[in-house]
Amino acid sequence: MLSPNTGTSLAPPASVPVPPAGRRAFLALGTLALTSVGLTACSSAGSAVGTTAAASTDSGPEAAAVARAVTTVTALRASASALASGTLPNGATLRIKGSTAKLLTRTAEAHTAQLTDLGSPVSGTTSPTPGPTSSGTPDTSGTETAESPSALAKAEWSAARTLLGDAAGLSPAFAGLLYRLAASCAANADLLRSATGGKAFGELTVSSIEDDDEDASPSASATSDEDATTPGTSATSSSSTLTTGESGALNRLLAGEHAAFYAYPLVVAHIGGDRREVADEIWEVHRQQRDELERLLLAANVDPVQGSAAYSVTPPTSAGKAAALATTIEQRLAGLAVDVIAVAQDDTVTTTAAGVLVDCTRRQAAWTKKPVADPGSSS
């Protein structure tokens, strides 16, 4: 599920270079069948993440980052499982309404699947054993059991921020792993916050994490968890040189955004109720992301792929099918973003794709109201 992607499966136009592909699986297009270049994305087929993590026997930053990720995800799983059962490790009992308990169970299941793929044994709901840091000192962050669903929402959000920060500077495969875990945690935080009636979390980008770390002067503008930088606003560099792999993967992601911008009005027209306004706002977000990707490519003197005049999209006939179409769009775009991260050498490319991955995963979870264990995958 969470094994790092090694290639892409989307066949772009001849003008778009294709990076070498590793083992991959083709995803069915489902309700969105695009006649040109669209939202089909790939997921790795083959070895699980645990195999990659286990193969790294050194004590470098990647091994330490994976160890911290295991510790964090184990703690989140323990909290979700305990809260779903209504009994905390200290013996205290909680009254959790049925819908929230179901969400907590699904959250625990998602984390269980992640730990399995990370090669970590999964046991009961007890607090996890702290993992090592790069210095060899036990990492005790994020190991306390959350005592309420709202507290778990905050813990998931904090974990997402930590994972985003830990991914910086790692190789593409390991960075992609942590970015996907971060996206999953951010989506969990949204779902739990919504279930408990709390204020929605704001934007979450790699650049906002870095800005928080660098804000040392009193005059620096404060950035909170709920008022972070809008995706793409600081990602585009004035100029850069992209590899063939980066150019191809970015153009495929751009092609997906073209398709998303074309298809989302169908969601807006058929979703109904309060979600129509939300869908309309997301449509505008996809326009902005499309434009941001075009600017990034142009700054690197790469011709951006153009959108098709029309796409073959099956119009939804109900609000439920409109939500399913929106889910497919976000899921496919997340997969294309993972593909970009897998070949990224430039920091701007990585952070841009990571932002798309996190945002699309959060929107996918919002449309389905279910956790996303493996962002960018069809499973």
UniProtKB/TrEMBL annotation:
Top-rank taxon: Bacteria
Segments crossing the lipid bilayer: none
Compositional bias segments (type: Low complexity): 119-143, 217-245
Disordered: annotated span: 112-153, 208-245
InterPro entries to which the protein is assigned, alphabetical: DUF4439, Ferritin-like, Ferritin-like_SF
Signal sequence interval, chain numbering: none
One Pfam short name: DUF4439
Protein name: DUF4439 domain-containing protein
Domain annotation DUF4439: ranges: 249-377
CDD domains recorded: Ferritin_like (cd00657)
